[in-house]
Specification:
Distance between the termini: 58 Å
Strand order of the largest sheet: 2-1-3-4-5
Order of helices and strands: HHHHHHHEEHEHEEH
CATH topology of the largest domain: Cytidine Deaminase, domain 2
CATH class of the largest domain: Alpha Beta
Number of domains: 2
Strand content: 5-15%
Number of strands: 5
CATH superfamily of the largest domain: Cytidine Deaminase, domain 2
Amino acid sequence: MRVAVPLKLKTLPAEERPRERLLRLGPERLSDDELIAILLGTGTREQSVIEVAGDLLHHCRLKDRDNPLGVLLRFQAGDVRRLVPGIGPAKQCQLLAALQLGQRAVRSPLKRVELSNPGAVFQFLAPRLSQLDHEQFLVVLLNAKNHVIDVECVSVGTLTSSLVHPREIFKPAIRRSAHAIILAHNHPSGDPTPSREDREVTRRLIDAGKLIGIEVLDHLVIGDGRYTSFRERKIVEWT
């Protein structure tokens, strides 16, 4: 149930305003509405900044009551402004930038890839893919000691052989002098079962890697809290 608040923020006692509460109590004691309000900074002529933040999170909770901030992160350009007219492009950028920084801050570091444990690779990549409502194809670039050089997104959209072309996959690997790569993409449906297209694309990329001299170590399909490892399941021939 949403709590009614005064229309103007200045009508609140100073100690009850979001910024003052954060400084006095710490960010962990503030509600999502208050933290969003701090990021927005100002409200509109009709609504206080807390009301604008509350309206935004209300729309997000209608889509996913358990993870409204995840809904906000999935919004496309214009979605926020359409739902809450008081939020313009600059404020939407501030919100998305803050959420993205938060995601990056909690990502598990992966200094070395344990090939015997695809679950570790899944834990490393899931925060990047689990909240998306569209497919993304990632390439993990590894050096000769299987240390992660970088992770690059090489394709956005439905996985097809035309979208995931070997030249796009191996271009960053060649540019960064990678010794090997791990492939990963998400299924927005939540089901990580590889499709026929997934299998065909994987075989094609493994063969291309052999020709180029950059080994494809695995391909993970990431779903909702689950994954499928091509190498672990021996879905395709790796030798």
